[in-house]
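Example: DinB-like domain-containing protein.
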Amino acid sequence: MKEQILKELTEVIRETFEGGLPGQGTQYLDHQSGIYPTMDSLTAQQASFSWNGIPSIASHIRHMKFHLQVVAEWLQGQQHKRDWLASFQPYTVTEEEWKQLKTDFENTRQAFLEEVGKLSEEQFQEDMGHGAVAHLAYHLGAVRQLMHLVPKEVQDV
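Written out as structure tokens, the predicted fold is:
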């Protein structure tokens, strides 16, 4: 049972990060709505735009990475308090930081999947990572909505 569910979880996470595969159905609205295609479509300036002080796209991406990292650490037994609000900071990124954030996020994804794969059958049944997928999907939706708030003059950069 664990292997089948792990395979399905891995595929949903792949789709969450990379988008849907051509010619196949998708769990999301369109095939290009994954985290990475979304990040690739934005400049650092666009990702840094904050409307009325709400967290920017970059800050949501930082928080998503932080959350996945915390879940991986939690599975390793590092179950201490975290500063969740600080995980959204800073709201802005440079082009270099934006590219590095994607690299770091990929490393975090791989670490998370590795930790989930190490779980015993019993541990896996208790916490198989679905909460992490729901959290990623929630913030991906927020990011996709925030893209519509980026002003035209920032979009044309």
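The CA atoms of residues 115 and 148 lie 35 Å apart.
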